[in-house]
Amino acid sequence: MPPSTEALDILVLIVRERTYALPLAGVVEVMRPLPLRALEGAPAYVLGIATIRGQAVPVVDPGQLVAGTPGTPRRFVTVRSGQRLVALAVEAVVGVRQLPRQALADLPGFLANAAAGALAGLGAPDGEVLALLDAGKLLPTGLWGELA
Known about the structure:
The protein is mainly β. The chain has a single domain, classed as CATH 2.40.50.180. 11% of the residues lie in helices and 45% in strands. The protein has helices at residues 62-67, 109-112, 141-147, and strands at 7-15, 18-23, 27-31, 46-52, 55-60, 75-81, 84-90, 92-100, 104-105, 119-123, 130-133. The chain has a 6-stranded mixed sheet with strand order 8-1-2-11-10-9. A 5-stranded mixed sheet has the order 3-6-7-5-4.
């Protein structure tokens, strides 16, 4: 199916038995988890720093960010966050799908500020509820300075 303005290409992920998605345009690669270095003073959902292709990349646990519970990642998904990269630690990568834009809804008020704004919307393609993540809001702005 060719790209369409009526649908958003997404990468579907499983985190703590919940379904999340990332816009495919921002996904760089999927890989096995790599060793991490701790990052002092970082929020609990920042697991540390991984060296990915020679670059220091922060690793975020979306389950910890959204639900406050740590998990056991089986994959890292590297995404663009502006000009930088962030890796998400996830349990599984389901695959690529198209999310019809009409199936994407704004967040209800009680979720709008949840997870530091990292949730961009909700969708229910095929009757399965998924939360769309905003890669640009996965890390606090001040944390980028510590990585430089």
